Amino acid sequence: MANNINSQISYKTLFNDNPDLYCFPGLPEANDGPLAYLVELYQQIQMFEKDADKESARFLSQRRTDIEKLLLDSTNLNQTSSLLPLVIEALAEKVKNHINNNQPLTHSLADIHYPLSLPFHFPLKQTTTVLAKKEIPLLDLIQRADSKYPNFIDDNLSADSLQTAMMISSTLAPKLQALLLEKSQSSQKDFFEKYYGLKGDTIKAAGSLERLTIFTQQTGLTSQEAESLFAVNGIAEETKTHSIVTYSSNVTKPDNADKQFPSGANYAASYINAGKAPALLRTNSLSLISFSMLRDCHNRHLLHLCWFWIIKNLIPP
């Protein structure tokens, strides 16, 4: 009888303890674990956002739309995740608000060309990346895959299959090839919105783009990259713009070679300047607030500049 009574007396029976309210250390549901810390941070952020300015503040739900969908369990707690997939997923969610959602994201990125890092043709990029790792030229692969190989010799150099192979092996996406071959769009009303992301009045858009700060912002270039693109070497004087063009020892220098720098309209940046003077130069404003301007900036310059930079970024060195 005594043993039976002693066996019934315990902490659980005396205090009506419920073991389901406890967990072992290190489990996801522990109130001192990393998941509890994340939940506390999330709740703290929600409290701060209640008092934030709804118009100027960028809420967590806007910056990281995936936060509310994350599954907090033991698997994710002990799993190491790469940062790159998270960044890509977050950017993809943001992009969906500005593109056609009736087609896959990869199709939309292959079809648009602003910002200047686009169009991005994922299948082509994936193929060229793998071939680069294998050190196999794309043209060589296409030639060997032809049923009539080796037919790219002698009288077959102008064959349609060879021309097609050369176009594909240029690593230029189909959309980019079409854009480069289309007629000039510089006179269109939506030129600045289509190529430089500037909406509104055409005259105002052209005027704002002449400012180097706006130009670099819309193109994603740094000031150093812009200098290299325009073949100029910064701003040295109010009346002169020093170029980075130098005369070769194989050419006859003009009489004023020691007094005047060679113009980018004829050398280095001749394509961007549409082969016509005056060149697209950077000059200093005479106002008290000094800023850089793109002088003599015409749509033909901007269109050529746009194509040049897109090709430079997309063609591997």
Summarize this structure briefly.
The chain is mainly α and 317 residues long. It has helices at residues 2-8, 11-15, 34-50, 60-63, 74-77, 83-95, 105-109, 122-134, 138-145, 160-169, 174-181, 191-196, 202-209, 212-219, 223-230, 299-314; strands at residues 281-284, 292-295. The chain is built from 16 helices and two strands.
Structural summary, described in words:
The chain has three domains: 2-95, no CATH class; 122-172, no CATH class; 191-314, no CATH class. It has 317 residues and is mostly helical. It has helices at 2-8, 11-15, 34-50, 60-63, 74-77, 83-95, 105-109, 122-134, 138-145, 160-169, 174-181, 191-196, 202-209, 212-219, 223-230, 299-314, and strands at 281-284, 292-295. Strands 1-2 form a two-stranded antiparallel sheet. Helix content is 44%, strand content 3%. The protein has 16 helices and two strands. Helix 9 (138-145) packs antiparallel against helix 10 (160-169).
Describe the SSE topology.
Elements: H1 2-8, H2 11-15, H3 34-50, H4 60-63, H5 74-77, H6 83-95, H7 105-109, H8 122-134, H9 138-145, H10 160-169, H11 174-181, H12 191-196, H13 202-209, H14 212-219, H15 223-230, E1 281-284, E2 292-295, H16 299-314
Antiparallel strand pairs: 1-2
Number of structural units classed as domains: 3
User: Helix share of residues?
Assistant: 40-55%
How would a textbook summarize the main sheet? 2 strands, antiparallel
Rg, Cα atoms, Å: 31 Å
User: Given the helix and strand composition, which structural class is it?
Assistant: mainly alpha
Whole-number mean pLDDT: 74
